[in-house]
Amino acid sequence: MSERKAVQRFSRKPQVLSGEDLLSGIGSPSMSTAPRPSESDNAFDNESNTDTTFSENKIEDLPQKSQNRIEKTLRSGHELVVDLDGDELFIMNKHGDTELTIHIKDDGPVVECKGTRLKLSAPQSIDLLCEDFKVQAEGDIHLNANRQLTIESTEELHLNCEVDIRLRGRVIWLN
């Protein structure tokens, strides 16, 4: 996406819809939908904090249908479930597995996403602010900057590797 298109896309004034208006428009040509991922990968499992592990809910595990529960089937076959009593929103795949959950809690929303890819795009910056930040990959991790890359720590910095560590540069400054 070009930067100009991204700026136009992200600078639109948001439209405020009621829950019923939003759900009634889903699946209509006027509502845009994101492309559907092909198959789910394993979600990041944080064993030290159970609040951040992904819910393995199936649609039959959700609260029973009531006046305060709204269900809508999307064109992709995914199911959108809004539980107004529990302040939760779920998107299930065709097999009934939870792919996206938004829990509205007293201290703010908790978003859980499980899918083939997660893509964040912004015309200027993406800021992540938290107490602890952990990334785990079964494969490679690539960091690429077209300009400067800075890694800073106010305490010790540890680099651990089971094989060689290579530093390449015109000049390498140590201390």
Compact overview of the structure:
The chain is 9% helix and 17% strand.
Which features does this protein show?
2 helices, five-stranded antiparallel beta sheet, 5 strands, mainly beta, 175 residues
Beta-strand residue fraction: 15-25%
Low-confidence stretches: 6-17, 27-54
**Content-based structural category:** mainly beta
**Radius of gyration, CA atoms, in whole angstroms:** 21 Å
| Approximate helicity band | under 10%
If you average the pLDDT, what whole number results? Answer: 74
| Number of distinct beta strands | 5
Main beta sheet: 5 strands, antiparallel
Strand order of the largest sheet: 1-2-3-4-5
**How many angstroms does the end-to-end distance come to?**
41 Å
Your description of this structure?
It is a single chain. The protein contains two helices and five strands. The protein has 175 residues and is mainly beta. The protein has a domain of 111 residues. The protein has a five-stranded antiparallel β-sheet, with no helix packed on it. The longest helix has 8 residues. The two termini are 41 Å apart. About 23% of the residues have low confidence.
